[in-house]
Write a structure and sequence with these properties.
The chain is mainly α and 71 residues long. Helix content is 73%, strand content 0%.
Length: 71
């Protein structure tokens, strides 16, 4: 599943929205919480790492584009 499906957010959401969704889900899926699951928690963490990579690439791309086209 794609990271935005796991985090239950829109594909076009802002990073802050994805981070809020991650924090909310991590509280309920944590293995130490009743009803939590280690597998689901790992899947959530992997999805959030992919989310972070996505937004880092997007930021680098936008920075590179503005640097090249600002002259």
């Amino acid at each position: 599943a794609a990271w935005y499906d796991v985090l239950n957010v829109s594909e076009r959401c802002q990073f802050s929205t994805a981070r809020k969704a991650y924090r909310k889900l991590s509280k309920s899926l944590h293995p130490d919480v009743v009803g939590g699951s280690e597998d689901a928690f790992k899947r959530l963490n992997n999805a959030f790492m992919e989310c972070q990579k996505h937004f880092e690439r997007k930021k680098r791309h936008e920075t590179a584009y503005t640097t090249v086209h600002s002259c």
